[in-house]
Amino acid sequence: MKALLTVDQLSQYLHKSVASIRSDASRNPQSLPPICRLPGTKRLLWRIEDVENWLAEHVEGVAPPQRPTIAFDDHKPRRGRPTKAEQLARQRQLQTSGTSRGVSSSARA
Asked: CA–CA separation, 43 vs 5, rounded Å?
């Protein structure tokens, strides 16, 4: 088994301050590699393999897996109130379909 990294060593490895690592360990643990806690201690320790794997997962510039594209007409309606843009598009659609049939609002009255 390889040696464990302390907070000071991890701070040098990740180029973060010791204070931010300690803060993140309690407030935002997902922003750090998995912590290796030894039974009966409160020391923050990390296995070098976990740190390297965590860093490899967070490399930018690698293309994420492609999700299948969904055609606009095939989507399910969203829950909740439509956005203003969706409301206006719906109004335009109703106006164009009403005028194409030759029915105007004044003819109904």
From this structure: 11
pLDDT digits (tens, 9 = 90+) for 13-48: 999 999 999 999 999 888 999 999 889 988 999 999
In this prediction the pTM is 0.53
CA 105/CA 52 separation, integer angstroms = 68
> Using an 8 Å Cβ cutoff, are 40 and 29 in contact?
no
Q: How far apart are CA 78 and CA 4, in angstroms?
A: 48
Q: What DSSP letter does each residue of 46-58 carry, written as one string? A: EEHHHHHHHHHHT
Supply the angle between the helices 7-14 and 18-27 in degrees, to the nearest 10.
Answer: 100
User: What six digits make up the tokens of 71?
Assistant: 């055609």
DSSP reduced 3-state for 5: strand
